[in-house]
Fold this sequence. Notes:
By secondary structure, the protein is an alpha+beta fold. Helices cover 22% and strands 44% of the residues. The protein has helices at 3-32, 62-66; strands at residues 38-41, 50-57, 60-61, 70-71, 74-75, 79-80, 86-90, 94-102, 107-113, 116-121, 129-134, 137-145, 151-159.
Amino acid sequence: xxxxxxxxxxFQRLGIGGAIALLIGLLxxxxxxxxxxxxxxxxxxxxxxxxLQGTGxxxxxxxxxxxxxxSPIGPCTGYANKAPNHTITLRAFFNSLRVTVESAEDTAxxxxxxGGTWCNxxxxxxxxxxxxxxxxxxxxxxxxxxxxxxTASYTLKLFD
Length: 160
């Protein structure tokens, strides 16, 4: 019996309901193991700016995910998924690091790490930006949208 015949026979024994349940289980398993994109940077990284693509938004109010509605540089607004869009690890102190979001949609930016939680909205038109001195460590980054379950494609740029 050839490979295709064995697979066909196997699916026939499972029946259509069993085959669908198996495929759903496999898909859910793959989704459960998907990870937040991570990046590790040192000062004077290259290329500068570093660019990351993503899709922001989600079903959770960002305020409930991070436990606050304001930060020293702006309001914490919008909706996101529980998992951050990106995780960045800084190997050393950055005297000046700037993170921007460019999107055709109106987005906001939330960064949580060793120095605290920082939120920003509409620094450059409808695009958020967070800049300053950064401590070494792990930073979780969310790009939010204003409507629940709305998504927005974006480019996250990091400038040293």
